[in-house]
Amino acid sequence: MEPIDPLSPSLSEDAAIGVALRRSLIILLLIGGLAGAAIWWFSRPEPMNQSLSNRLAAPFRREVESTVRPPKVPFSSVDPRSGVAFVHQNGAEGAKLLPETMGGGIACFDFDNDGDVDLLFINSNRWAESKLTAPKPLNGLFRNDTVRGGPWHFTDVTSGSGLDTPFYGMGVSCADFDGDDLRDVLITGVGGIRLFKNKGAGKFKDITAASGLPSEGSDWCTAAAWFDADNDGDLDLFIGRYVVWSPELDREVNNQLVGIGRAYGRPWNFPGTFPSL
Length: 277
Prior knowledge:
Elements: H1 13-43, H2 50-54, H3 79-82, E1 106-109, E2 118-121, E3 140-144, E4 154-156, E5 169-175, E6 184-189, E7 192-200, E8 203-206, H4 208-211, E9 221-227, E10 236-241, H5 247-253, E11 256-257, E12 261-262
Antiparallel strand pairs: 1-2, 2-3, 3-4, 5-6, 6-7, 7-8, 9-10, 11-12
């Protein structure tokens, strides 16, 4: 069959229009294909420079063993000879309360301004329902009496220092907050904080009530930092907290282990809380 010429007088007007439309569509598709190919060609990613990749160095292997050695720093226990005899007590008597899983902090500071570093160990406490009749655990303040060049020696001066106050402590932060050149002591713990002013001569006074700082209730304070937050020349205080907790809430959560019974719970069983500045 010979092709139909749209200009032939024998072809109806409608047929001529149909043939012309089909030819127009074919031409548009060809133009679109060419345009797409051109766009792809000019936007294609650059081929990797083979010469550059071939210049990458091979992994280096040290043939000669280094003669550099880390220094050896030996340590030896001097507790029996140093006079430091402190045992932390967490108050555990079977109730499996969360704070019992944690220890207490230690402060190394010169409380008597004699030029050497003294030690303050933070102790925990027994719970209110404890049936033990022995004296409650106390912090441990040890004065550094080491003679220059001689063996380390500390003297327990806790008794009568003012720091011999039962409290379920966690952390400790020392600073001269009142500018009298004596380092004061802030103890954080279960039930808030305790602030002790250094009066000199190895004596500290509890000024928590007058300070306006949180000291009662279910506050669980963990750590603290002294710093000048507003650059006004005096020390401000940042207090970190752990979770909202109380013995009653811990018993209500009642963490259990199969085959064992009551056990220490996880901290995420209790609501979170916020620090204070």
